[in-house]
Amino acid sequence: MPHVIVKLWPGRSEEQKMKLTEKIVQAVTDELNAEETSVSVSFEEVAKERWTQDVYIPDIAEKESMLYKKPGYKPSI
Length: 77
Prior knowledge:
38% of the residues lie in helices and 16% in strands. By secondary structure, the chain is of the alpha+beta class. It has a single domain (3-66), classed as Macrophage Migration Inhibitory Factor (2-Layer Sandwich). It has a two-stranded parallel ribbon with strand order 1-2. The radius of gyration is 14 Å and the shape is globular.
């Protein structure tokens, strides 16, 4: 605990993912007083044309009360 899942469009480099992973792990360990060994991070690449049905609807629109940072867009559903 905790496990962080980053969902994003394809196209980011492994270097970008590793740098973001380091920043996420640092933030989690600093803010939650978690041990680095207990933190895990994964990336799920979702095609742009599938974003609305695979991410926006189930993870954002249907769980809006759980969001701490809402996106600045609303796709036409």
